[in-house]
Write a structure and sequence with these properties.
The structure is a single chain. The longest helix is centred in the middle third of the chain and has 29 residues. The protein has a seven-stranded parallel sheet, with helices on both faces. It is 39% helix and 18% strand. It has seven helices and seven strands, in the order E-H-E-E-H-E-H-E-H-E-H-H-H-E. Strand 1, helix 1 and strand 2 form a beta-alpha-beta unit. 31% of the residues are buried. The radius of gyration is 17 Å and the shape is globular. The termini are far apart.
Amino acid sequence: MIKPAFVIYGAGSDIIAPMFDHFADSDFICLVNRSKPDHLKGVILETGSDDFESEFKSALSDFAKDRVLVYLNAAVYQKDELFIAHSKGDIEQMVRVGITQALIVTQIVLGEMVKRRKGRVINLSSFRARAPAKGAAVYAAIKSFGNTFFSAVGLEYGRFDITSNSIAIGFAESKLLDRLEAQKLSEFKKSVAKNKFLPQEEFLGAIEYIVNSKYFNASVIDLNGGLGLLE
């Protein structure tokens, strides 16, 4: 079994929170925009800092040399409204968090992985990348971009024993779902063949599989329990 050391971009996400206990013996570098919830561990860096890139490179250079570097891209900024209602600032923020900053972070991490001749890249995607919906046009497009980009990373760097894959999750327990009405939650649950939302252990198991596999690469895991059509 591989002993991982995690770099997590978007570490403030509540979907990511169980990882810190599950991989309790691992080291972490947590990259956040502003939110710093209590579940964070290890080195915490703000991506909006003027010195972020230099601070990140410095923290990464000496980070857990005896472990396999695992980079998890989980950052997202989402506005649930029709596209024409998005402000210019909203669009710029969604693109900055989901694409521009993600590319910068990935480039820095890949440089360190190439030096070490080993690494695992995991992109946290969504079923919306393949099934867009009203009010989620930009979100869906950014997730689709991520699937394509991170698969291409796997093709480029597989020869360095660096794999890159995406996990496209369905409905998972999160603050986003907590804001929905009970009827809507029931409809979402009924749309899943398993008739339940994503269990934490299934998500963590998918992370473990990618981390420990030497061959699985440039792919997307659809971890949605079997989703049918949604209104």
